[in-house]
Design brief:
Elements (H helix, E strand, L loop, with lengths): L1 H14 L1 E4 L5 H21 L1 H6 L3 E3 L9 H11 L2 H10 L3 E10 L20 H7 L5 E7 L3 E6 L10 H8 L14 E5 L4 E5 L4 E3 L6 E9 L16 H4 L6 H12 L1
Antiparallel strand pairs: 1-7, 2-3, 3-9, 4-7, 4-9, 5-6, 5-8
Helix pairs in contact: 1-5
């Protein structure tokens, strides 16, 4: 397994992502799907207008607003399970938990899948160029149903956009952010697969089928990301005691205490 993890680390360093097929058993996905659908059903009712008009994802899945304690414990234990953590550790040995997101097909047919880097929503162009050379945030995507998957631009976790990529992502020179890129690579995903990729590489989700994917976001404790962590999405002491491997969450809790 060590050789396999070394290869995954090499794949990430070179391309900015790796995918493992059939990583989770059917029973693991069924159990996770039950918890996530409990969240999704409640969230949709509470955010009906937003869901129907502009939404393609939700966040803060581990929070207390839509899940009971039992479901939160299940979710925390999945996120920090040995299967997840060995993949995280092979890329970022000192990782901390940031957030969870749930990606689904938008109800509004006018919404199109779009190319982006996550850092573009927080930083201007010059800062983005610096961010991709520094500590990065990881997405671990776990599809709950078979779906069209993701499109990624390999290597852009460490290099800046070429002219085509920049024009599309910024929607300039007659381009739109949902235009196809010649450098894009499609990664089709099925229930049971896992895709780990850099949040700051150029990427987009592909809408269609029964798309419902849980993303786990983690970051290096050396990075300045503690402010992005919502307190309610971390386990309180009573729940923390029921998490088998709480290191990922303890790292976040300690960072926020010292921030």
């Amino acid at each position: 397994m060590l050789n396999d993890l070394n290869q995954l680390n090499n794949n990430y360093k070179q391309h900015g992502y790796f995918v493992i097929r059939n990583y989770f058993s059917e029973s693991e996905i069924v159990s996770l799907r039950e918890v996530v659908l409990n969240f999704h059903d409640s969230w949709k009712q509470d955010n009906k207008e937003f869901y129907e008009e502009v939404a393609f994802n939700s966040s803060l899945i581990t929070g207390s607003e839509y899940l009971n304690s039992a479901d939160r414990i299940k979710l925390f234990n999945f996120i920090s399970s040995t299967k997840i953590m060995q993949l995280v550790d092979c890329v970022i040995p000192t990782a901390a938990f940031m957030n969870t997101q749930l990606f689904f097909n938008p109800i509004n047919p006018e919404l199109k899948d779009f190319w982006h880097r996550d850092c573009q929503y927080d930083h201007d162009i010059n800062i983005q160029k610096q961010v991709i050379k520094q500590t990065q945030v990881l997405h671990l995507r776990v599809p709950l149903f078979d779906e069209p998957g993701m499109e990624l631009v390999p290597g852009t976790h460490t290099r800046w956009d070429n002219e085509e990529e920049f024009n599309v992502r910024q929607e300039i020179k007659g381009k739109l952010s949902n235009n196809n890129l010649s450098t894009g690579k499609t990664i089709k995903l099925g229930a049971g697969d896992i895709l780990l990729f850099s949040a700051d590489m150029i990427h987009r989700g592909i809408y269609g089928m029964d798309r419902l994917a849980l993303d786990i976001l983690v970051f290096d404790t050396a990075g300045d990301f503690a402010d992005y962590v919502d307190d309610d999405c971390l386990p309180e002491p009573a729940i923390l005691d029921k998490i088998k491997h709480p290191r990922l969450f303890l790292n976040s809790i300690n960072l926020k205490k010292n921030n």
